[in-house]
Amino acid sequence: MHIIVTGGAGYIGTHTCLELLTSGYDVTVVDNLSNSCREGLRRVEKLTGKSLCSFYHIDLIDPLATDKVFQHCPDAAAVIHFAGLKAVGESVAQPLRYYQNNLTGTINLCQSMQRYGVKNLVFSSSCTVYGTPASVPITEDFPLGVCTNPYGRSKAMIEDILRDLHQSDPEWNIALLRYFNPVGAHESGVIGEDPNGVPNNLMPYISQVAVGKLQQLSVFGNDYPTPDGTGVRDYIHVVDLAKGHLCALEKLQQQPGAFACNLGTGQGYSVLEMIAAFERVSGQKINYTIAPRRQGDIACAYADPSFAARELGWKAERGLDVMCRDTWNWQSKNPQGYASR
Ligand code: UD1
Q1: 155 in contact with ligand 1, CB cutoff 6 A
Q2: Residue 148 Cα, ligand 1 centroid: separation in angstroms?
Q3: 287-300, pLDDT tens digit by residue?
Q4: Which of 181, 214, 218 to mutate to test the pocket of ligand 1 (most atoms within 8 A of CB)?
Q5: Which of 230, 243, 106 shows the shortest CA–CA distance to 161?
Q6: Distance of alpha carbon 205 from alpha carbon 331, whole angstroms
């Protein structure tokens, strides 16, 4: 079965392409390489011993280029759509760029899919669509909350667009996968997360402090209503997350329709617990200081993963130590990310 993966050169994309190739899928990648490089996919090909069908260096905001991909892939059965801008702070500063890229890119993609009769879509959504949840754990039927930034709103808007699309034409089968906090790397340490510039997210920040690239971590707030006062999140190993996409593809085939599904572990860890676990597993000391809260952050978010277990037969298998081990393995082998070699 031939799958088109948009944003396939990125962090979650490369790990998902690896799982798809390993499971015998044919894979075509579409990526504008705005926050990724070809090297990640080269390494995926090396690791799996398999080649991508094709790689298209194009931007989904170009409708003609997007159409061409489908023209050249007449046997495409489904699309996994990762492509999108995702930096929260940048989205506040550049809302038009974010809306144009994320919304127009998705609309163009769906129009091409419709024209070429490819109506199976797995969309990369986020737990950010829940805003500040009234309680935890979060189930899929929680109301969609008020997002605090354009990035988050673009995800919520795309979910609405895709639900409308399914409503208008039930031939569309759509999985909205709401990721919690992806961390870790493939156990080989050959592919991993390679953020542009100073990382915004906790785990890459910790690992860059550990490897000596950054001086000190700022812990954003220790006065939250959580056991140790620092923010609690549901960190999920990227390989577990990648495997969730394959389960979603299978589900769409067996039981067509549209659904939203959390991909998380169901277990929350605080920032201080993450630091302690990383220090224990890596043997590195993480310098940190307590800083003011970061605007827009919430105290606590973790998934109820039971829908995914019941409906997709998927469950995260990798625990906190494996997440830290694999992050450190990748970071220490590739201190400069893909530019290291
Ligand atoms: C963030 C985004 C979310 C996005 C997700 C992708 C915000 C407000 N939310 O989620 O929309 O889908 O990334 O993974 O940015 N922390 C520190 N120091 C740091 C960095 C983070 O203390 O240098 C803390 C945060 O306050 C938070 C936790 O670590 O409590 C996790 O932060 P982060 O990795 O940025 O993820 P989220 O904020 O949950």
Answers
A1: no
A2: 13
A3: 999 999 999 999 99
A4: 181
A5: 106
A6: 11
Alpha-carbon span 336 to 341, nearest angstrom: 8
Distance 170 CA to ligand 1 centre (A): 36
Query: pLDDT by residue (tens digit) across 234-251?
Result: 999 999 999 999 999 999
- Kindly state the DSSP code that residue 235 receives in the 8-state scheme: E
218 lines ligand 1 (CB under 6 A): yes
| Overall average pLDDT of the 303-322 stretch | 98
271 lines ligand 1 (CB under 6 A): yes
Q: How confident is the model at residue 340 (pLDDT cuts 50, 70, 90)?
A: low
- Whether 235 sits among the annotated catalytic residues: the reply is no
Among the listed residues 130, 151, 179, 338, the single catalytic one is: 151
How many residues are there in the chain?
Answer: 341
pLDDT of residue 341: 43
**Assigned token pair, 33:** 């390489």
Does the C-beta of 296 come closer than 6 Å to ligand 1? yes
Residue 76 and residue 123: Cα distance in Å, rounded? Answer: 16
Compute the distance between CA of residue 325 and CA of residue 123 in angstroms, rounded to an integer: 28
Cα 271 from Cα 19, distance rounded (Å): 29
Residue type, 334: N
Q: For 137-182, what is each residue's pLDDT tens digit?
A: 999 999 998 998 999 999 999 999 999 999 999 999 999 999 999 9
Residues 28-39 have a mean pLDDT of 97
Q: Tabulate helix, strand, coil % of the chain (nearest 5).
A: 45, 20, 40
Exposed/middle/buried for residue 274 (C-beta within 10 Å: 0-12, 13-18, 19+): buried
- Contact between 5 and 176 (Cβ < 8 Å): no
Cβ-proximal residues to 283 (8 Å cutoff; 6+ apart), any chain: none
Q: Is the pLDDT of residue 128 over 70?
A: yes
Ligand 1 atom 1: the closest Cα is on which residue? Answer: 201
- DSSP for 39-86, please give it: HHHHHHHHHHT---SEEE---TT-HHHHHHHHHH-TTEEEEEE--S--
